[in-house]
Amino acid sequence: MTDFVHDIWYFGALASDIPKRGRSAGLHRVIIAGEPICIGRREDGSVFAMRDICPHRAAPFSAGCLTAGGVQCPYHGWVFDTQDGRCTEIPALTQDSAVAPEKIRVRTFPVAQTGQILWIWFSADKRFSGEPPFPPPLFPLVETRPVIDDGVRLNCHVDHAVIGLMDPAHGPYVHKQWWWRSQASMHEKAKAFEPRERGFAMAAHSPSSNSAAYKLLGGKPVTEITFQLPGIRTEHIRVGDKTVLSFTAVTPEDATHTRIRQLFFTDHGLFKALSPVLAFGAKAFLRQDGDMVDLQAQGLRFDPNLMLIEDADTQAKWYHQLKKNWAKAQQTGKPFVNPVKARTLRWRS
């Protein structure tokens, strides 16, 4: 379970994550699938992404600064062009030095911005620097600043984090708040699922009667929950002509650590007004999931055989099949085949 999804857009950061003041202004560090990445913004406002390791002595570029020639390493002042990763300056060199800076390069990554979200194209080919074959995903309302922004770092492989996120049966046991649901409120549910681009969706439906938090929105909410590779979950809630978008990105750092970023975007006035209270609940959910991951790790270190059941774990099965088919498509050059077929799943929660 050390495999990661390649040749796809990963959530990199929010535009507001890029600092505007200080020595490292315009630079931000993330780790994706074992690669430290420096995301930055040039003086003209355009965004770049490059490997966050100087090839000289391994100092992170994100601790350096931007100059007219590119990113300057904080250790010895080496400068690298943000377009192609080529070294443009080595201050220690004398005029008669035989060293050719332009032959020294660092990996760069295609990067794109949709609204407030910065996306990074992560290719299996470390030399890839061309135009990705498809654009990053688009979502409504992301051109506005999120009203709730939270995140946690989980001590687990990304597969366990993703499966935990889409698991419909753990709520009454892990998230036992009076304002959400409890074991006493469990009942049988039936939800229609449909294939979506690089994933699947719980089709638009009215929230379950034991999901009390939705009642705060008033009216008759309709929600659609979508998952797509590599680890993007969205819940699109409509109440009349107003919308709430819950956006969650599950991003692997390495084989044993995963970062979750949860954002809420909305044009719903009441949701905005209640966002400080709702943020408290969202933070509680993520940290409860983190606590359960730590408990789960106590068993996983013994390498047990795990099982997935129908129908409660069908989404987890789909996730593994999606990953497998995506990897096969990249290896063979053949079109990706979505294994998900429209069906109704039933479980109790």
How would you characterize this protein structure?
This protein has 349 residues and is an alpha+beta fold. The protein folds into 2 domains: 8-122, Rieske [2Fe-2S] iron-sulphur domain (Rieske Iron-sulfur Protein, 3-layer Sandwich), CATH 2.102.10; 148-348, Naphthalene 1,2-dioxygenase Alpha Subunit, Chain A, domain 1, CATH 3.90.380.10. Helices cover 18% and strands 33% of the residues. The protein contains 4 helices and 19 strands. The strands form 4 sheets. The protein has an 8-stranded antiparallel beta sheet, covered by helices on one side. Strand 2 (27-32) and strand 3 form a beta hairpin. The longest helix is centred in the C-terminal third of the chain and has 32 residues, at 269-300. It is globular. The two termini are 28 Å apart. This is (2Fe-2S) ferredoxin.
Question: Care to give the gist of this entry?
Answer:
This is (2Fe-2S) ferredoxin. By secondary structure, the chain is of the alpha+beta class.
Number of strands: 19
Assigned CATH architecture of the largest domain: Alpha-Beta Complex
CATH superfamily of the largest domain: Naphthalene 1,2-dioxygenase Alpha Subunit, Chain A, domain 1
Share of helix, binned: 10-25%
Radius of gyration of CA atoms, rounded to a whole number: 22 Å
Instruction: Tell me the strand percentage band.
Output: 25-35%
Q: Specify the biggest β-sheet.
A: 8 strands, antiparallel
The strands making up the biggest β-sheet line up spatially as 12-18-17-16-15-14-13-19
The CATH topology of the largest domain corresponds to Naphthalene 1,2-dioxygenase Alpha Subunit, Chain A, domain 1
Total helical segments: 4
Enumerate the spans where pLDDT stays under 50 for 5 or more consecutive residues: none
